[in-house]
């Protein structure tokens, strides 16, 4: 217990959950940015170059998003068990 009677462990856990959520949102934002890049590639390059490069870029954005979900869930479980 802190001097003012609050439970510091509870506040620390809450702050850690919030940080985990912010990190997940950063992964989501990054994945969406890569999707925008893929759209730019599709629209403004020749089909010979743009189609495969845009497809690879979309796959990369999907991988970033899935990694963000996986990381968020793992960290959430770690926080909840401590």
Structure description:
The chain is mainly α and 82 residues long. It has 2 helices and no strands. The relative contact order is 0.15.
Largest sheet: none
The end-to-end span amounts to: 17 Å
Number of helices: 2
What's the order of the H and E elements? HH
- Morphology: elongated
Task: Determine Rg (CA atoms, Å).
Answer: 19 Å
Q: Percent helix among the residues?
A: over 70%
Low-pLDDT stretches = none
DSSP E strands, number? 0
Mean pLDDT: 91
Fraction in beta strands: under 5%
The SS-based structural class is mainly alpha
Question: Which descriptors would you attach to this protein?
Answer:
82 residues, mainly alpha, 2 helices, elongated
Produce the secondary structure layout.
Layout: H1 8-44, H2 47-80
Helix pairs in contact: 1-2
Task: Report a brief summary of the structure.
With 82 residues, this protein is mainly α. Helix content is 87%, strand content 0%.
